[in-house]
Here is the input.
Amino acid sequence: MPPVHVQGMRVYWEDTDAGGVVFYADYLKFFERARTEWLRRLGYSQEAMRTSANGPSAAMFVVTDTQVKYLRPARLDDWIEVDVQVMRRGSASLDIRQQALRGPELLAVGSIRIGCVDPTTLRPRRIPDDLQQALDMPGPENATTS
Amino acid sequence: MPPVHVQGMRVYWEDTDAGGVVFYADYLKFFERARTEWLRRLGYSQEAMRTSANGPSAAMFVVTDTQVKYLRPARLDDWIEVDVQVMRRGSASLDIRQQALRGPELLAVGSIRIGCVDPTTLRPRRIPDDLQQALDMPGPENATTS
Amino acid sequence: MPPVHVQGMRVYWEDTDAGGVVFYADYLKFFERARTEWLRRLGYSQEAMRTSANGPSAAMFVVTDTQVKYLRPARLDDWIEVDVQVMRRGSASLDIRQQALRGPELLAVGSIRIGCVDPTTLRPRRIPDDLQQALDMPGPENATTS
Amino acid sequence: MPPVHVQGMRVYWEDTDAGGVVFYADYLKFFERARTEWLRRLGYSQEAMRTSANGPSAAMFVVTDTQVKYLRPARLDDWIEVDVQVMRRGSASLDIRQQALRGPELLAVGSIRIGCVDPTTLRPRRIPDDLQQALDMPGPENATTS
Here is the structure.
C-alpha cells in the first residue's frame, strides 16, 4: 500500500544532540510535519480548524499514542523523507504509520494514533464530515514535496 | 545590585547539539524558566494570569526583544544557575538582565524585554496592579532554588 | 514494584503548544530527564561516560524504542513527577517503564528501551560492569527529588 | 542590498506555544535553518566541515551573539520566509542580519554573529580559504527556495 503523502525535510543543528545524531524525540516532530502537510494537501489548515468561529466545525487533532522504533541515526545536513500511511480510520480517530527514510535507508518507523477533539473542551468529537470525505480521496502513489 | 532570583537547572540531552555543547537557542529557554520561577515566587502563575476568567485581569507576558552574548559553552550534565535582574520597570513592559553561570564561570548573559499583553487580542496592556506591587518587594540577596 | 527514581519538574512555556497543553513529543524529554537524574544518583554522569578517555569504558546510551500513551494533558506551570522503573535488564540494553503524574493523576505512561553503544562507532556494547553493579542496588521506595 | 539567500519554511505545532503563536526562541532556529541552506548553496555542508578527517580544514561555526526584535506573531500553518544578509566579514567571524517575513509583513529581525572554531578544541580559527572565496560570489537578487 503506497503512502498517501511523502514529505522531504532537512536535518538542522536544532535536531541534533551531543551524540552527533538526531535526538530521538525529534522524529515525533518530523512525523508531525509530514501529517500537517498531508492534511494541508487535502485542504485542511489545522490553525483554521482550531480557531474556527463556527462552533460545530471547530476541531483539533491530538496525539494519544506513539510508538517509534529507531533503526539508524540521522545526522546534520541529511535530507530525509517522511511518509504517511493511514492504517485505520475511525469516526473520531486515525491510526497512522510513518517512516523516516534517507534515500533507501529506513531510519525510524512510527505508529501514531491521533484523536479528534473539541479545541475548547479537549473532549473527543467526530472528525468533520468534509475531512472524512477528503480522506476518501486516493493518495498519489509517490507524492514527494519539498 | 543583587539578582531578585536565581534558578538552578541541569543540562540534559535535549539541550545539546552535535557540537557537543548546549544549543545556543536553548539559553532563551533557560532564561525563561528562571523568569517563570521568579514570577511564581512573587505569587504569579502565568497560566492563571493567561486563562483568568476575569477579563480585566487577564494578562500574558510576551518577549519583544532579546540580546544574548555567549561566552563559554555548557555541556551535558552541567548544573547551571540562571539569575534575574530587573533593569527597568515600565507600566506595560520590563527589561530583564539575565546571566547563566556554571559555578563562578559566566556562560551567557542576556537582556530580555517582556511586554504585557491581553491574551486574546495580543494588544499591550498595563501590568496588573497587584503584580506591580509584588515587583516592589525586595528580592532575597541570594535566592537559589533548585 | 516501587519506582527506582522519581523526578519532579515544572512545565514551562517551551513545553507547550498552540493547543494550550504540553506538546506530546516533550514527554520523551521529561522521561529522559528522569532517567538522567536516576543514573546520576547511581553515580553515573553520561557526559563523563561518553567522553571517557579510557576507550574500553567509553559508553553512551541510545534510545531504540519508545511507546507513549497520553492520558491527560499537562499545562503551563504544572508540577509533574516522572518516575523510572526497570522492567528488564540485559547485558547491553534496558527496558524502562516511566509514568508522568500530576499529583495523583496519571498524565502519560511510556516504555523506553535504551541500548548501550560505543560513543564513536555507535555499535552495541555491554553495559559497563560497574554500572551493572550499581543497577543491583535497591532503589528508594519514594525517591522524590526536585 | 539584497539578501544573499531567502529560505521558505512552514510553522508547525512544534514551533508554537500556549499563547497560540510561535515561541520566540524558535526564531533562532528559523534563522539557523536559513544560514545552513545558504552555506549549502555555497557548497558547504557543516557536517562535512565539522567531521573533516583533514585536521587543518575541520571547522565549525558557533553563534557568539544574537539580537532579535519580535514585531508580529507567526501562527501555526503560516508560511514564512527567512533571509540572510552578510553585514560584515572578518577572518574568523561573520555578522549576519536576518529577517523573518510572512508575505510583506516583517515578523522578526535578528543580528547574529557567528565565529569559526576548531570542532575539537572550540578555539577560534580562520574561516577556511575556500569558503572565504565562496563568500565573494555575488548572491542572487531573490533566491527563494522552499
About this structure: The first strand of chain C starts at residue 5 and ends at 10. The mean pLDDT of chain C is 91. The radius of gyration of chain C is 16 Å.
